[in-house]
């Protein structure tokens, strides 16, 4: 899916290493992303996007995560936020998504309050953490809707939550990303205070509110998000296993020690390869179901959620088993193996794939 030669991949790795040191994607790396349209995986071609199917996008995101965790994670989260274009009023967004460098990002947590006004909302809130904050053009956030000082309730009695997007100039950004891994994602907190926005800056992410034709927008958002995060862990884990293979060969191990360590690596590769094949088959089947029936059944949606969680859990488990065999060199923060390990377990803190079945 990447369609990159060895020289281009080597250059990406070089720029990613620099980005790791600078704790954000460098301008040179961003320029490659803009040219390749990786932030616009799901944007229609008429708006300068790639209009990818979900199965194809997942394979690309996995490959990027293999090259570098921060690269894969940032592309995935930003392309996922740009995906919201399919739920916005097209006449109101105008040429927004035609821009080469347009990049949305934000938070799914409803830690803001939006008070209904005559022609829109007044929004106040603070959110953690917006991936790629330094290069974002717009920030997205979820808010609880209030009217007359009280939450607006839905038919089932739960609070009404809507999504919003803000211009970068309208938000305050906090340089508070101190995580052990995914350093170059520069995932910073942001806030707004009594910000007045018009109605069209609010949107709802579900099938009933789709405003663009591409079938990807009819794929339920939860399994969409779960699959995209899962392939990031998969890509990083395959990278870790390849780095571990090299590390074991460089260590002075006797035959029994090497056999024990190598068996751990080979078992991990086999089990992960088997489950990742099941994962991609399930995603492909769900995509075909969407194209045929226009909707996913609850059974299919549940199946995708389950296999995404299983894949992430399996990868994390094998990472914890394999890493101790790699030696003290793997504990150096300058080593690539250490960086991949830190990235995997930083990604593991994303609540979407941590809780549930």
Please, could you describe this protein's structure?
Helices cover 46% and strands 15% of the residues. The protein is of the alpha+beta class and 357 residues long. Strands 1, 2, 3, 4, 5, 6, 7, 8 and 9 form a nine-stranded mixed beta sheet that branches. Strand 2 and strand 3 form a beta hairpin. Helix 4 runs antiparallel to helix 6, helix 6 packs parallel to helix 8 and helix 6 packs antiparallel against helix 9. The chain starts with 5 loop residues before the first helix and ends in a 10-residue tail after the last helix. The mean pLDDT is 96.
Q: In one word, what is the shape?
A: globular
From the N-terminal CA to the C-terminal CA, the straight-line distance is 31 Å
Strand percent estimate:
15-25%
Query: What's the rounded overall pLDDT mean?
Result: 96
Element pattern in H and E: HHHHHEEEEEEEEEHHHH
Helix content: 40-55%
Cα-atom Rg, whole angstroms? 21 Å
Please provide the count of β strands: 9
- Put simply, the count of helices is 9
